[in-house]
């Protein structure tokens, strides 16, 4: 297994952050790692979507867990391994929220592909989370 986690704290309310996450069609507006997104249904467990990073081919993912206002998880199943990213909100004291992105690569080929693929997938997490937080703080 390979894993990486990045968290930040913000004054943005969980509801404001969740609105950004649950509106998948607008992800490219604040996530520079997505040039294009195609979503095959509502923001619901089981919905498939394709994200196209700049200069690359599309990546097929599926929403596998949603707890409204708290967490959603997407997965890319590549056969010999699965890339799972958990997006979590945690309400803290003093009107603060912790935003966490956590990626795990699991499965038979995880130890082989994780050390190369994992850092490539997660390299932009600090920038993506910062952009999400900025949008949510602006309202």
CATH T-level topology: Alpha-D-Glucose-1,6-Bisphosphate, Chain A, domain 4
**Domain module count:** 1
Radius of gyration: 15 Å
Q: Give the helix/strand class.
A: alpha+beta
- Termini Cα gap: 38 Å
Strand order of the largest sheet: 1-7-6-5-4-3-2
Protein name: SRPBCC family protein
InterPro entries: Polyketide_cyclase/dehydratase, START-like_dom_sf
Describe the structure.
- Strand 2 (36-39) and strand 3 (48-52) form a beta hairpin.
- The protein has helices at 14-22, 27-30, 110-122, 125-138, and strands at residues 2-10, 36-39, 48-52, 59-67, 71-77, 82-91, 97-106.
- The protein is α+β, with helices and mostly antiparallel strands and 139 residues long.
- It has one domain: START domain (Alpha-D-Glucose-1,6-Bisphosphate, Chain A, domain 4, 2-Layer Sandwich), CATH 3.30.530.20.
- It is built from 4 helices and 7 strands.
- Helix 1 (14-22) packs across helix 4 (125-138).
- The termini are far apart.
- The longest helix is centred in the C-terminal third of the chain and has 14 residues, at 125-138.
- A 7-stranded antiparallel sheet has the order 1-7-6-5-4-3-2, covered by helices on one side.
- It is globular.
- The relative contact order is 0.26.
- The mean pLDDT is 96.
């Amino acid at each position: 297994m390979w894993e990486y986690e990045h968290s930040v704290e913000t004054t943005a309310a969980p509801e404001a952050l969740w609105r950004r996450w649950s509106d998948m069609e607008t992800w490219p507006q604040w996530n520079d790692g997505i040039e294009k997104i195609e979503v095959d249904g509502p923001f619901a467990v089981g919905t498939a979507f394709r994200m196209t990073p700049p200069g690359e081919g599309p990546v097929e993912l599926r929403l596998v867990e949603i707890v409204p206002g708290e967490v959603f998880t997407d997965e890319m199943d590549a056969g010999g391994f699965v890339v799972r990213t958990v997006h979590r909100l945690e309400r803290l004291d003093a009107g603060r929220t912790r935003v966490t992105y956590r990626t795990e690569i699991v499965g038979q080929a995880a130890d082989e592909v994780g050390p190369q693929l994992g850092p490539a997938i997660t390299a932009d997490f600090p920038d993506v989370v910062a952009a999400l937080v900025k949008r949510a703080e602006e309202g």
